[in-house]
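Hi D.,

Good news: the full-assembly prediction came through. Inputs first.
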Amino acid sequence: MRIRISHTISYEYAEPARHITQILRLTPLDHDGQHVMSWRIEPSIDGRMRATRDAHGNVVHSFYADGPISSLSIHIDGVVETTDLAGVVRGGIERVPCDVYRRDTLLTEQDEALRSFAEETAGGAGTELSQMHALMAAVNGRMTCVDATGRTGVGAAAAFQAKEAIAQDIAHVFMACARHLGLPARYVSGYVAQAEDLPHANGAHAWAEVHFDDYGWIGFDCANAICPIDTHVRVAVGLDFADAAPVRGARQGGEGELLNVLVSAREAEGRLSNQ
Amino acid sequence: MLSRTADSLYWVSRYVERAEYLARILDATTRLTNLPHAYGGAGTEWQSAVSTAGCEDTFAKAYGEANERNVCDFLTFNPDNPSSIRNCLAQARSNARAVRTALTSEMWDAINGAWLELQRFEKTRMDREEFARFLDWVKNVSLVFDGSAYRTMLRDDGYWFSRLGVYVERADNTARILDVKYHVLLPANEQVGGSLDYFQWTTVLREVSALTAYHWVYREAVKPILIADLLILNRRMPRSLAACYESISRFLDSLGDAYGRQGPAQRQARKTLANLSNTRIDDIFQHGLHEFIEDFITENNRLGNTIFEQYLQ
Amino acid sequence: MVAFDEMTGSGAELRPAYEALDRWLKETPADQLALRRSQAELFFRRIGITFAVYGDEDSTERLIPFDIIPRVLTKPEWTKLEKGLRQRVTALNMFLADVYGPKECLKAGIIPPDLVYRNACYQLEMVDFKVPHGVYCHIAGIDVVRVDADTFYVLEDNARTPSGVSYMMENREVMLRLFPELFSTHRVAPVDNYPDQLLATLRSVAPRSAPSDPTICLLTPGQFNSAFYEHSFLADKLGVELVEGSDLLVKDDVVYMRTTQGPKRVDVIYRRIDDDFIDPLVFRGDSVLGVPGIIGAYKAGNVTLANAVGTGVADDKAVYSYMPEIVKFFTGEEPILKNVPTWRCREPEANAYVLDNLEHLVVKEVNGSGGYGMLVGPHANKAQIETFRRKLKAQPEGFIAQPTLALSTCPTFVASGVAPRHVDLRPYVLSGANGISCVPGGLTRVALKEGSLVVNSSQGGGTKDTWVLDA
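Then the structure:
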């Protein structure tokens, strides 16, 4: 599938900001089943943009801009060609050993409820792979995915208790359980193209990947109850949301921030002539 | 010098100065209300003390009625009033502690000792006599702190920022007294005459320790226009607006020289100083004392902001 | 269990280094000692009062008790100890360079890889990043204990932001003031050159792009941090600015201090803020103590952080148990300083032994510090032991266990007079581009409660001046 992504993150400040620093993980990379045909990141104001790689292999842009800044928007526009590999992730950059992803982080810390949920769910299933499928179904059954607009994450344990969570925390719940069961699990931020049978698509999304000795990394999208197919565009991975967040920022001044996000991911129509 | 260090030095001085000012208001108000009712009259003195301290809203929310007990409590030990004497000293100490090594040990001892002593006062029940002693003590803390700064600090940017704090605060305080009491100084009130006005006028002078100075300078009976002249334009009077701005301008110039760069703060202070030098008190009364004072307070706040933007942030 | 005594050894015989001190103790009447002790307290109160927050109802800070009887080490004892410390710190730095670089020690099976990879202190940001001049742990505090005349054990390596060095210096200062006569009868190696050595160390690791006179600052979490006194003390002695996170800003990967004359570039930051809080853009986003972008500047090679980020993986208590092998692997030498025998509860056999012998062992949380999260078996009651039994069964990998060591004792002036109390020693080891230095002695901590083995100040411990005799 050829997916056209258009993503605009805009900030407005009641008091102009004197200086803004942002760390952006907004650049997808090529791997089996994913080819980036074009990709642009454009801030609306002048600043210095420097690209580096982090430990996970993600492209990280550091963006510095001097004020006074009363509004800033980052516009991302690109086309990615994908093929359905049933969630298997291969041919990408793996910089750190997968043992690292067995670590518990603040957002994936488990409590008693999560631990017993993980054990009960996995108990009946056979192989590690079928355990994870059972877990995905169970997480999907328990959790209701809600729109992320105006909400922030609360972490696995709190989300599990609330039963209602944004996609990133549903991924955290799943990761926390997988890690408790001894499997390396990581967080993926990306986009999902609009598709008829996917309830949570057309936009920015988050899911999880689990590492199996036999297959390598396989994705699990609990909100949509599927392993990622050609609708999914992987952008960044990490130990949890904080580690793979699309944008982390700090500013001086700039009180009264107003955030607005517009995102669309759709199958690109026709050829690329409209570029 | 770190901007935060300069900022703390500036605020230590401001808070100590403010604590002293609050003690002066309370002292003068107590004196005024202790007069027989025939003289004291209106009975709005306590409300006026709250206004002079610039915290009417907080007070109204916390207490309602402005009587001696409420106001004294509010302006001295109330932990919820950001401008109580207690909180001024707490803020001064907290700022001092953050930049401990930028202070001389004498200054630190003065401010830290005051904070420890304050807690002793806070625990004792105070009768009027003890309360008067307390107010004297607060004034004394300011004297000791100010004196130790004057006598022990290196004459460099640290000293200048600390002095700027003193004079910006002091200018604000004197202006506030005038702002609240301007009506007793207006010519219309002169005709009313009588003892009440006399006591009101001398109260204004007492609040700035200028009763004796007045007589030395003017050698005349107490007259409102001369009081205004003394507090606004007379450079010999250390709490006058003109004297404060003479100092502010001087210390800003020292900073500008040392740093090799002048800025908006210098320009603004000079302009205000020139204005105070070229204006006669008659002109002020003609154009409106109240408006003049209000403008001054706004300008002085603006200078505070300019200093902050130029040096302290 | 009879502990080795620093003054009388294993028997009742006076050790030579303590002869003059013993005479002095016998000649000086108890009320005189008591007087001097109260003078010492006064001195500390005067300098410490400013930060030990005497009178602040919302603070838990207080004075750390000071004992006036010094702990004495002879020159040969110190020489051997110092050699061991240098070796240990060399190995710590090589270990860090290796786990963030080629990972030879993991490949060679010296230490189980998951102990490193799953460790939250193993900072992924540091993987494959070359720190300036190859130094990770610029300031180390190695806690050692003594069990007999010749044997020192390392109890703990502190490779993150070890504190206490200001006490080492202030203790000497107060001793010089109160007991000048002792210093005329003993040739005590000075410690007051520590700030000079620290400054030289910090200057030596400035980025190569920095000017020949690099700008250094000390980054503190602020005045409410329990070690704030030490931060301001050191900044003052080093002659560098004491900055808080909000005093620094990062622009285009360069760190600046906000000064009254505008932004001033910073080259080396002696930071006393933990990794997790140092950069809200990279680590904990809720940190208000840190500096957004500082890690970016660090990785761009524009500023040196001392200690480096991620050193915590080397002083982890689970990694500690592998230190003898680590020292051997990296230095090719036998470790001069021993490790306390340690049971790794992550290993089922070891855990079974530990569970069977809880009443004899000291059990420590792998990630605990400051004497918290610790069980001292012989001094614990039944309930405490049972609590730990449950913890050990639930999460064995979170714990290690060690035998209760007979920490050496040192004469200490307590309420009942002069009596032996258990002590440890924290020497401070500095690593710069030009090698390692170590001020003679360090901070002796003493457990003031009779029989107690816990010397941490948070648990009722005090401190002593530590003398290395030059003669």
